[in-house]
Amino acid sequence: MGIFTKKKISKRLEYNKEKERPVVRCSICNGERVAGFMEYGTKNFREVAFIRDNTELEDFKESCGVEGEIEKVY
User: Fold this and answer.
1) pLDDT per residue over 14-67, tens digit each?
2) Where are the extended beta strands (E) located within the chain?
3) How many Cα neighbours within 13 Å face the side chain of 41?
4) What is the distance between the alpha carbons of residues 39 and 53, in angstroms, rounded to a whole number?
5) Which has the closest alpha carbon to 51: 37, 67, 36, 73?
6) pLDDT for res 13
7) Position 3 in a domain
8) Residue 11 carries which DSSP code?
9) What is d(CA 31, CA 24) in angstroms, rounded to the nearest whole number?
């Protein structure tokens, strides 16, 4: 086991579905992806996990109960 290992999101993420929605914030210039929750009215972003590959994206979707595609915000 190395020093830097991937951590799997193991618990169910709780969020207020009336005020927030799960999104993936993507950088246009370097391709960095961060999963989290964005408030509907204020557009404030709450960061949850850094996404390095599609398995981490699937773990995030599973942990917050989303099926299908997650909205990408640039």
Assistant:
1) 888 999 999 999 999 998 999 999 999 999 999 999 999 999 999 999 988 888
2) 20-26, 33-39, 45-51, 71-73
3) 2
4) 25
5) 36
6) 79
7) no
8) S
9) 12
Q: Which two tokens stand for residue 12?
A: 């169910």
The domain total for the chain is 1
Distance CA 1, CA 18 (A): 41
User: Is the residue at 4 inside a domain?
Assistant: no
Residue 15 lies in a domain: no
Long-range contacts of 40-45 (CB under 8 A, 24+ apart): 45/73
Structure tokens at 4: 């830097």
Print the domain residue range for 44.
20-73
Task: Give the tokens for residue 22.
Answer: 């799960």
Instruction: Give the containing element (helix H, strand E) for 63.
Output: helix 54-64
The token pair at 11 is 């618990």
- Residue 31 in any domain: the answer is yes
